[in-house]
Design a protein that fits this description.
The structure is a single chain. This protein is α/β, with parallel strands linked by helices. 41% of the residues lie in helices and 20% in strands. The chain has a 7-stranded mixed β-sheet. Strand 2, helix 4 and strand 3 form a beta-alpha-beta unit. Helix 2 runs parallel beside helix 3. This is Carboxy-S-adenosyl-L-methionine synthase. Catalyzes the conversion of S-adenosyl-L-methionine (SAM) to carboxy-S-adenosyl-L-methionine (Cx-SAM). It is an enzyme of class 2 (transferase).
């Protein structure tokens, strides 16, 4: 039995006081509060994670690789792990934040499952991909520069075996200004209901607007098809957060 202790669960107060404007970074301070931050900021996150396990179990193929790209603390990685029934599969989590990977290692070690997990502190734009049956980008692509997104998805598409899938979760924007305003308002109300103040909401939005660039659902679907996936469907949506399943034909 591992003697490692789980990383401390800390309440997100990063933007609770006035601070100098700076771009959002996945550094040690964010890693420390990340579980609380994402639970209180992303509607449906606690539904999406267990469903990644369900989807993985349906599409994983023996002898293939499974990837969690932008794995952060490994919530999606562990969901995939529990959905993989084949001992000859390889599960890989990739993140370019050393602070995230370090904490992810603790969560993986504490998880009660025999399937090995390989963690790479690498750029997902250049990490090696091959023979993939299930790949997850769980709120990751939105932080990739728009000009680099097609190249990344094309690499994933080329690495995906027939019948394999990509699970893509993203914050989206809407073509209609009216719908955008309504969905943004509801998202902010979700944050307020979870205890975030107006100051926290405002400062977080200012910090993240230059590094997280959302796109429309139509943009995502068109790009996924261009990247080599044959069917793209939305399996979950709450306000301006969606999760898509991109399927490569058998």
């Amino acid at each position: 039995m591992s003697n490692k202790k789980a990383p401390e669960q800390v309440t997100d107060r990063l933007f609770a006081t006035e601070r100098n404007p700076e771009d959002f970074r996945f550094d040690a301070s964010v890693a420390r509060v990340f579980p609380d931050m994402i639970r209180r900021s992303v509607p449906g996150y606690t539904t999406i994670i267990p469903m990644i396990e369900v989807i993985t179990e349906q599409y994983v193929q023996p002898g293939t690789h499974c990837y969690d790209l932008g794995c952060s603390l490994g919530a999606s990685t562990l969901a995939m792990r529990h959905g993989i029934p084949h001992p000859d599969c390889t599960l890989v989590g990739v993140d370019n934040s050393e602070a995230m990977i370090e904490r992810c290692e603790h969560y993986v070690a504490l998880d009660d499952h025999d399937l090995p997990v390989t963690l790479r502190c690498e750029d997902i734009l250049t990490t090696e991909l091959s023979t993939a049956s299930v790949t997850t980008l769980n709120f990751t692509l939105q932080f990739v520069p728009p000009a680099e997104r097609l190249s990344l998805l094309t690499r994933i598409g080329q690495a995906t075996v027939p019948g394999g899938v990509l699970i893509l979760s993203e914050k989206i924007r809407f073509g209609s200004d009216t719908e955008q305003a309504v969905q943004t308002h509801l998202h902010h109300e979700f944050k307020r209901a979870n205890g975030y103040s107006d100051l926290e909401i405002s400062q977080k939005r200012a910090a993240i607007e230059n590094v997280m660039i959302p796109e429309t659902l139509a943009d995502h679907k068109a790009r996924l098809e261009q990247a080599g996936f044959d069917q793209v469907l939305v399996w979950y949506q709450c306000f301006n957060f969606v999760s898509m399943l991109a399927i490569k034909a058998p």
